[in-house]
Amino acid sequence: MKILKLSFICALVTLVQFGLHAQTLPVGTTALEDYYRRAQLLGIADSSVSFTVRPIFPNYINKKADVFYPDSTMPKYNTLGANRLWKNKGKSDLKISYLPLSLQTQFNSDHPYGWNDGAMIPAKGLQTVLSGGIFAQYGLLTIQLKPELLLAQNSDFENLNKNSYDVIFARYYDIYNNIDLPVQFGKGAYNKLYGGQSSIRLNYKSLSFGLSTENLWWGPGIRNSLLMSNTAPGFLHFTFNTLRPVQTPIGSFEWQLIGGKLSNSGFAPLTPDHSYFGTDLYVPKPNDWRYLAGIVFTWQPKWIPGLFLGFDQSSQTYGKDLSGIRDYLPLFAPVKKVSAPDDPINKQDQRSSLFMRWLWTQEHAEIYFELGHNNYSGDLTQALLTPEYSRAYIFGIRKLMPFNTARNENIMISVEVTQLQENNIDKIKAGDEWYTSKAIRQGYTNMGEVLGAGIGPGANLQSVDVSWVKGLKKIGLQFERYIHNNDFYYYAYYDSYDFRRHWVDLSIAANYEWDFKNLIFNAKIQGIKSLNYQWYLKQNPGDPYFVNGANAFNLQIQAGITYRF
Fold it and tell me: How many Å apart are CA 388 and CA 402, to the nearest integer?
């Protein structure tokens, strides 16, 4: 305890050492965000930044670089003839700069696919996101306005197969009545204007406090994160966070504390709805908004350079149930004992994780891991006896290998595994999964999409990426195996455990990112073969035991362009 107090005092003292830079790089920014992470592997950027609390503040990672022009060897251009930065010539310190203009498009030929795409929705057809804005700084105050406009075709497609048995529909609703995760966002075009990557902050030394609608990413993962990712649109939240690591006698610390408002999609799980023995299966969810409190905390021990150890936790409750400071800051209140493991914890929906990232700059590599628990109220003894109970994990490794040193070219290999599938039979038979909640029936979502790992409840993912990289340029191949909600599969078919029915997507994608003058181009073409689409197996009398399921092929095309002033 004395060491912790000493560290806290030293952290406050060392704040005076740091300058003021508070322009963020939005989560998922094409080419730029991953450039900074790769620069750490190459040893040309500050290795004390964990990349486990995002959005990042690039001025602290590479102090000599412009946020949107990190490669100092590349000349800048002014294609549109507009000054990026305007400074007041008077006595005030007002500065205003343009933020990049971005146009991102996505097309799915057969059915929805994809995650980590912010304002976009799971939809068939074409959708487009437009964004741009300004950044203003006046003394301690910064204002970032970067709204996002979504235009989605949202075409019809076949969801849960209409020929499935009624009992399968009933079991589907048993789960998806406890999470706001619609298969389709209504009928016809879906258009939305979001606050996007906007914020207003007061920044002092290494600390920032403000109001934001930005996407957040917590943890070390690249394809997935257990608690916070950019799969769903950003939500309105207060934030108290560090701008850069705070140095203490025992190492450096980063953190973010938030309290925000989550919104509902307003759509049912399936379109159209279904009934079972004359009873509607869909149980409408409460219309009340939800309050989310969360914290992420990362420590880099000074004795082990490059090692980051962290913890994050989130808790949500309905707005109507908020009554006191303990409800607004449940992260600092003790968890009450419950009478049974399946009971909701204090009528809240909680989850937490421990994570690590180990950066090896001499090897140009990193390894990371995240282990989480979902609505788990057991004590330490129970956790040691059944560590697999309500758990999920992410594991990854990444390495850069020299390809042409004279031209600063490298080959990058990335491997990541995400496991959300429950392996406790009692939880599966109860229909309990990651991100679902019987207490907060929208589950861990915002606007109908998961806040955490975009692959969704009960899913698993294995991903391999091999790329050629040089500065902001990247050309590569991505191979993935995506298992859709295996918890539902076992719950719906537990009478037979028919192993032929797993819904598995096998995909290969070609990725392209390229900077040219002010522009950054990005493109991705991905072919996805869905085996047993929607868990449906076509079986007729007299057929052999092993038959083809209701397989589907989806072609996804992504393309975008970003203009930097």
Answer: 39
